[in-house]
Amino acid sequence: MDKENVVTAIKDFILPELKEIKDNQAKMSIRLDAVEKRLSDINGHLVDQSRRIDETNNRIDEVRTELTGKIDNVRTELTDKIDETNNRIDEVRTELTGKIDNVRTELTDKIDEVRTDLTGRIDATNNRIDQLTFQVGKIAQEMERIKREESVTSDILTRLRTLEQKTANL
Q1: Global confidence as pTM
Q2: How far apart (Å, rounded) are the C-alpha atoms in residues 143 and 135?
Q3: Interior CA angle at 119 toward 115 and 121, to 5°?
Q4: Phi, psi dihedral angles at 115 (to 5 degrees)
Q5: N-terminal to C-terminal alpha carbon distance within the chain
Q6: pLDDT digits (tens, 9 = 90+) for 114-137
Q7: pLDDT digits (tens, 9 = 90+) for 78-119
Q8: Closest C-alpha among 87, 64, 63, 83 to residue 75
């Protein structure tokens, strides 16, 4: 083969292949540029989203800090109010306990007075009942005596009448 035939064969077979490879490379380069641009846009978008997420996280932290502070303030305020209420309850309990003790003492004293008074009255009534019972006993004895005397008197009268009749017949 001669040199020209080899050159012609190369031109006929290899050059069209090389041209097609160059065309494909140019297309790939354009596509690669588009992909790189798209990646750059996506990276920018990711950076923007990352920044937004950081801002949102910072806002969440600020809100968390703010709400934690408010919760602590409310807890402190309510704890103080609860302590104040408990102290007032203790004061009222102490005051009421004192009043209850005073009323208990007062009522116990009055109950003792009433018991003493009524016991004295019961004793006086029992004494009067005893005296009446004694007097009734004496009256019963007296009545028995009178009954006996009446029976004796009746017997004497009957004998006197009998004597009168006998003396009248004489």
Answers
A1: 0.45
A2: 12
A3: 120
A4: -60, -45
A5: 227
A6: 999 999 999 999 999 999 989 988
A7: 999 999 999 999 999 999 999 999 999 999 999 999 999 999
A8: 83
